[in-house]
Amino acid sequence: MTRVRKKTKKPGSILLSRHRGLRGDGPSAVASRALSNTSSLSSKVGRTLIRNHHTLQKRLSQALSKNDTETANSIRAEVEANGGIERYQQASVCGQDNQRGGDSSKILIDWLREAIRSSPDKRVTNKRLRLLEVGALSPDNACSRSNLFDVTRIDLNSRDPSIEAQDFMDRPIPTTDSERFDIISLSLVLNYVSLPAARGEMLERTTEFLRHTSLEGEQEQGSRVTELFPSLFLVLPAPCVTNSRYLDERRLEAMMGNLGYQLARRKLSAKLIYQLWHHIGKAQSSGRQKEFSRKEEVNPGRTRNNFAILFR
């Protein structure tokens, strides 16, 4: 039987929006049935759609790297048949629903409120921090409701007028502090990037968008608030660092340190790892860049995944 292929779009950026999960299953009947209901998704159906989407994106990146146009077009057609990026984003938004405990930004808010409560000068609570949310799915998460931030939201496939359609890797580098941010959020974004070197490039690029001006009332060294800003809020599926062949928390901390980041807060759950990285400025040990330009096995074993981050 001859397979009929749909007309597909030209290839776009490999940096898409959200990612939840590492392992991928093939197309399933439950995922196909979900396409008929666009209003809501069960947790099980949503997870299946997300896993399948990520698997297809990984296969697509591999095909493109080999210049295998035929396979790439076939995978694109399969992605569209499963509902495309729109259906994937719907599944991600459902997973972020409060009733499912899926809004990762709640962890960030808890950390910031704790620091503010311990601050000797409460004037910082009157200063709205500038937040860049990369891969934003909704304007109604905990960060948006906290009144702590002036939020700039971007995503490749905007679902809301308040979310700018933009690739972070194409966003112009700021030239003044008024264009920079106090916090950048990469919540379940980095792991959606298909190539290890592109993940490293994204992390390096975040340092160009952070401003190092002092917060009002927080000039003193040692302040619980000062030690958090400027910062990067990074959320990854836990297996990225707990079950990866090429990455663990120790190596990630060394790589982030090479970019001038220090780990300020951390929380590990059964599914996710949440980290707040304080950017202290230029790295002290830039000579390690070459060390992180190649994969190094840190967790041997047949059951490990291959998630990795590389610096060029």
From TrEMBL:
Transmembrane intervals: none
Subcellular location: Nucleus, Nucleolus
Chain sites annotated for binding S-adenosyl-L-methionine: 135, 155
Documented EC number(s): 2.1.1.-
One cellular component term from this protein's GO annotations in UniProt: nucleolus
Comp. bias intervals (Basic residues): 1-10
Stretch list, region Disordered: 1-46
InterPro entries in the cross-refs: Bmt2/SAMTOR
Bias kind Low complexity: ranges: 31-43
GO molecular function: rRNA (adenine) methyltransferase activity
Protein's UniProt keywords contain Transferase: yes
Top-level division of the source organism's lineage: Eukaryota
Pfam families: Bmt2
Alphabetized UniProt keyword annotations: Methyltransferase, Nucleus, S-adenosyl-L-methionine, Transferase
Role played: S-adenosyl-L-methionine-dependent methyltransferase that specifically methylates the N(1) position of an adenine present in helix 65 in 25S rRNA.
UniProt record similarity statement: Belongs to the BMT2 family.
Protein name in UniProt: 25S rRNA adenine-N(1) methyltransferase
